Amino acid sequence: MKVSVHAVNFTVDKKLVDFVQMRLDKLEKYYDKVVSADVFLKVENTSDKENKIAEIKINVPGDDFLVKKQCKTFEEAIELSSESLERLLVKRKEKISSHI
Predict the structure, then answer these.
(1) pTM value?
(2) Under CATH, which number does the domain 2-98 receive?
(3) pLDDT tier at 31, thresholds 50, 70, 90
(4) Which of the residues 12, 17, 24, 49 has the least number of beta carbons within 10 Å of its own beta carbon?
(5) Are 77 and 52 spatial neighbours (Cβ–Cβ below 8 Å)?
(6) Which of 45, 100, 53 minimizes the C-alpha distance to 76?
(7) Measured distance between the N- and C-terminal CA atoms of the chain, rounded to whole angstroms
(8) Beta pairing partners, 58
(9) Segment holding 69, helix H or strand E
(10) How many helices (H) and strands (E) are present in the chain, helices listed first?
(11) What is the Cα–Cα distance from 82 to 20, expressed in whole angstroms?
């Protein structure tokens, strides 16, 4: 799967990009028709501690899934987002396989 990481208002380090790639590669075992993923990492300028936002857009044939999470760290936000995407992809796979 092709993963594009976009950092908004900061520069992203290689370790975080590798973490995103590894975590999103795991999604392919739930639904193997994932075409690509766009990951937007944003930092909000607020006094709130949970100012890291991870937005993940998954492209599958015929549909796009978008999940947005806000947490204290990017790793936590990506983890929560990918768990949500796992549930979405499993639902989609069950829906498609029930029509066959």
Answers:
(1) 0.88
(2) 3.30.160.100
(3) confident
(4) 49
(5) yes
(6) 53
(7) 25
(8) 37, 65
(9) strand 63-71
(10) 2, 4
(11) 9
Contact 30, 86 (CB under 8 A): yes
Residue 44 gets which letter from DSSP? -
Q: Is 80 exceeded by the pLDDT of residue 98?
A: no
Q: What pLDDT is recorded for position 30?
A: 86
pLDDT (tens digit, 9 = 90+) per residue, 4-29?
999 988 888 999 999 999 999 998 88
Helix runs in the chain, H state only? 14-25, 74-99
Q: Helix, strand or coil for residue 39?
A: strand
Distance CA 77, CA 71 (A): 5
- Backbone angles phi and psi of 91, in degrees to 5: -60, -45
